[in-house]
């Protein structure tokens, strides 16, 4: 009941922050203008990530989570959110955006307690990779948010299996905060989460999952976590390979992602979104089963 109340509280907090997020987006010019690659046909505000960033951060600050983990998540999360928000507003250069992500990952590692060199390197690489992988999935209304919600749920259950109640609590807060954003973004988007939202979700999920794996010290936990994030990581890997084969910039956007293929196969946008969320949940459930053995 306590966890259910936390989800509802985070949901309502995030949901009510829609109007401030919308007003701020229009005020500072964080507007997504349609082009040949994008799916929408009219300008839409893209500062929606502010809603679940504030909801998660405030509730985390008030929660009984280990001080070091709490500070590292708040500091790193705020850093990467700011990087994404600036990119949504003034369009940062790739170098500045990458430097900001480096800073966020470093902030998490150096404030989250003693880590071995191996743990630090792998955590850094995982944060950089998953943050951008989630950002790449943000191509349809509700897609990135829905996938991250499913991943938060599955990560919470795996945390429960391994007895890590701090990661469980944080995952629950992230789940509720993300769900509070989705009614404004799916099926018809009134606002986008923007890079600020996608990078933030990827960062928090990467930070929590790496913390869980290293705290458990279990290969089984690692395998379960990798399955939870199977959809965005597999899509990202294929995208990089595809672009390299075509001798294109591996970080330049194209129309070869999973959701693009589903649309070409006749899926509606809503069905494509729900299909990929379902696949994400399936792999997460497989991860939970493996963790429970």
Can you tell me about this structure?
With 293 residues, this protein is an all-alpha fold. It has a domain at 2-26 and 44-217. The chain contains 13 helices and 2 strands. The chain has helices at 2-16, 18-28, 49-62, 67-90, 94-111, 117-137, 143-161, 165-181, 194-216, 219-228, 230-245, 258-264, 269-292; strands at residues 31-32, 44-45. It has a two-stranded antiparallel ribbon with strand order 1-2. Helix 1 (2-16) crosses helix 3 (49-62), helix 7 runs antiparallel to helix 8 (165-181) and helix 7 (143-161) packs parallel to helix 13 (269-292). The longest helix has 24 residues, at 67-90. The protein is globular, with a radius of gyration of 18 Å. The model has no long low-confidence stretch (mean pLDDT 92).
What is the chain-wise order of helices and strands? HHEEHHHHHHHHHHH
Q: Given the helix and strand composition, which structural class is it?
A: mainly alpha
What is the count of helical runs?
A: 13
How much helix, percentage-wise, in residues? over 70%
Mean pLDDT: 92
* Major sheet size, sense and barrel closure: 2 strands, antiparallel
- Low confidence ranges: none
Number of E-state strands = 2
Strand order of the largest sheet: 1-2
Question: What is the C-alpha radius of gyration, as a whole number of Å?
Answer: 18 Å
The backbone outline, from C-alpha atoms, is globular
Please report the distance between the alpha carbons of the first and last residues. Answer: 26 Å
């Amino acid at each position: 009941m306590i966890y259910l109340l936390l989800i509802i509280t985070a949901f309502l907090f995030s949901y009510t922050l829609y109007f401030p997020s919308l007003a701020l987006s229009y005020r500072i010019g964080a507007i997504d203008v349609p082009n040949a690659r994008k799916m929408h046909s009219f300008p839409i505000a893209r500062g929606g990530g502010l809603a679940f960033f504030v909801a998660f951060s405030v509730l985390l600050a008030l929660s009984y989570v280990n001080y070091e983990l709490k500070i590292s998540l708040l500091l790193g999360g705020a850093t990467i959110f700011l990087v994404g928000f600036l990119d949504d507003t003034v369009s940062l250069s790739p170098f500045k955006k990458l430097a900001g992500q480096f800073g966020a990952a470093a902030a998490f590692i150096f404030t989250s307690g003693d880590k071995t060199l191996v743990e630090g390197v792998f955590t850094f690489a995982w944060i950089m990779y998953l943050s951008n992988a989630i950002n790449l999935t943000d191509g349809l209304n509700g897609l990135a948010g829905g996938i991250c919600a499913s991943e938060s749920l599955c990560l919470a259950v795996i945390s429960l299996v391994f007895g890590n109640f701090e990661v469980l609590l944080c995952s629950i807060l992230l789940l509720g905060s993300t769900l509070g954003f989705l009614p404004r973004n799916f099926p018809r988007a009134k606002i986008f989460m923007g890079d600020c939202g996608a990078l933030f979700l990827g960062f928090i999920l990467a930070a929590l999952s790496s913390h869980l794996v290293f705290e458990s010290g279990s290969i089984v936990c690692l395998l379960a976590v990798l399955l939870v994030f199977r959809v965005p990581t597999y899509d990202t890997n294929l995208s990089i390979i595809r672009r390299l084969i075509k001798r294109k910039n591996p970080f330049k956007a194209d129309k070869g992602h999973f959701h693009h293929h589903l649309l070409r196969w006749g899926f509606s946008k809503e069905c494509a979104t729900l299909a990929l969320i379902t696949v994400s949940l399936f792999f997460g459930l497989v991860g939970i089963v493996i963790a429970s053995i």
